[in-house]
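Internal tracking record. Fields below are filled automatically when a chain is submitted to the structure queue. Please do not edit lines marked as system-generated. If the sequence contains nonstandard residues, flag them in the REMARKS field before resubmitting.
Queue: standard
Priority: normal
Entity type: single polypeptide chain
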Amino acid sequence: MPIKGIQQFMLGSVMNNEAQTRDTLRAIRQAGYEGIELCSFMTHPTGLMVRLLTRAAGMPTGNGGKLDWPGLVRESGLRVISLHTDLGSVERDPAAVTAECQMYGTRYAVITGMYRFDYGSEAAVRELAERLNKAGAALARQGTSLLYHNHNCELLRVSETRRAYDILVEETDPAAVNFEFDSYWFAEGGADVLDWMRRLGSRMKLWHINDRGTRQTGPAMTPILKTDSMELGTGNLPLASWLEQADSNGVEAVILESHRNWVEKSPVKSAQLSAKWLNKYL
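SYSTEM-GENERATED OUTPUT FOLLOWS
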């Protein structure tokens, strides 16, 4: 059975100094989470542009880039599931990326969909697949495994029959590249999540989980409701059936990541509520 984890991105706004970070990590551990997924651009100082881009995406990085993350994580009792980094860093210095992963005791380096990349171009996506193969092979020689994390941009069609994600799955080498599958973004994009999970099979090493629904109560102005990220079990996604498939695939961790719309506007309270679902099913 996979372990229960949480993404550091979700907690950036409540990890601005060591005391606050200790309190946050303690609350997460007490809620039942066993692991955390770190982001190299949150464990190191980052430039203004990165902070602005992540804030615009609903995921503020906070001011934790100068904290003692190895010490804080060790003290918390949480296991580091993986380290999010960027493809350029892996291409420039795979040994440095591996050294950071090893420092945290994880073998997974994860990269996500890239800004300013054309996911609607077949040639561009095939080029990305080749870059991933080379980067993953370089990491593998160092003892680290490369995972690719999707959003919804990979659902763009590059031809009548193929999407960007088809190319990334079909044209990457399983010995070099595997996947951290984010079901929320594919559900948001209208994809058949269960079908994709089956297709990924054992290449789906980690699973990012989130729910989707609405908090609106009372009479609506229109019959069309705005939906957003929700705590696990409070929305409308068929999470239990997806969990069965993820477990069948052999995923090592189920990792919560929500970006906004938190209950009482608190990422910690939101994570605590989602933990009730995770504790019930895992």
